[in-house]
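quick one before i forget lol
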Amino acid sequence: RRRGQTEVLLLFQRGSDELCSSVSNSPYIMSTTGQNPLSNGNDSKKFKGDIRGPSVPSRVIHIRKLPSDITEAEVISLGVPFGDVTNLLMLKAKNQAFLEMNSEEAAQNLVGYYSTMVPIIRHHPVYVQFSNHKELKTDNSPNQERAQAALRALSSSHVDTAAVAPSTVLRVVVENLIYPVTLDALCQIFSKFGTVLRIIIFTKNNQFQALLQYPDGASAQAAKLSLDGQNIYNGCCTLRISFSKLTSLNVKYNNEKSRDFTRPDLPTGDGQPTMEHTAMAAFSVYGDVMRVKILFNKKENALVQMSDSTQAQLAMSHLNGQRLHGKPLRITLSKHMSVQLPREGHEDQGLTKDYSNSPLHRFKKPGSKNYSNIFPPSATLHLSNIPPSVVEDDLKMLFASSGAVVKAFKFFQKDHKMALIQVGSVEEAIESLIEFHNHDLGENHHLRVSFSKSSI
């Protein structure tokens, strides 16, 4: 073994690709009217330039068919999930408005989303498209002053949904499940009360459950009031709805188990994180990962560069032979002394990732207490940095949402910022750590996950 060797070769073989073939890559049509909102019969004749292709994007969005008693805040809330809203022009007499987003990309995501999921405001469908205008110029009329005041109050940095409802995220349990319930069916039902941004479905305690996020508390409140206790099908599939303590959902894949409608670019995945994320998250338990390179001709293999040779040895001794997604990890020291970044102007299709400035490094500070908490993979995980509002059930549900079997849970008696959670196997624990380390729990708290030497 050569001194100063700082790199580990991770040979990671994943399961077959068959699952991918059953996941559709086509856009998900979730229009509650049953038609594409930009081609709804007569309306397309009345409004010139209604049907505009994606080839003419603009930061400015044209919104029409608004209810006559619409408020500025309700129009702005259509844009907030996609980015900062930088300007607003209300044309109440025409039941129309123009919304300016901070970037063309945000506007494209907004139009793309609402072209498949008609936004509902006060039980009325409204229609969204790109405007011919490239930016909004507004005057100092009383109308515009009202719009600017609403913009300041509702900018994405201080949206206060808690004033309306405890959370924008609903927890849905389906009881008496006689017929199967799909993610699409739930979206169809819940989108009648507002724009569904994100949704995750999973089974916990042999019950079908879902977490569903709206952009605002008012929509969540309206859906809960109207749907709690209702049956999806005659005499069965009863909805039990409560507010979740989670403030936001973190969706990594768009497939039949999870969907983020604000991010059409997400992969469908086969239920597994990307290779570089897997390497980064798993190896970071034993040292600071500096760079990861996926091998061009062997996409299941990677080079992982640690910050020093001791960390490389630790990672190899603890992770070699562990199972991940049903396959064993094979780890050896590499002959390469470092992972080279591609030269400027020579892209490598994103195969090399530089993590040298990653905020996820656990061992940056000399003498960090993380050095004394390095343990081999185990079925019990140590959780820390838990905000006060997140309770045991929220964390159990979070881990169950990725398919883990939660066997036990315990908060630390003296410090509720920390807890232990036991899952069904060491393999499930490794997968859960990869999935949920640094997960956003709200209130500026990102979950910290490591292996524990204790059991519950």
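fyi The chain has eleven helices and 22 strands.
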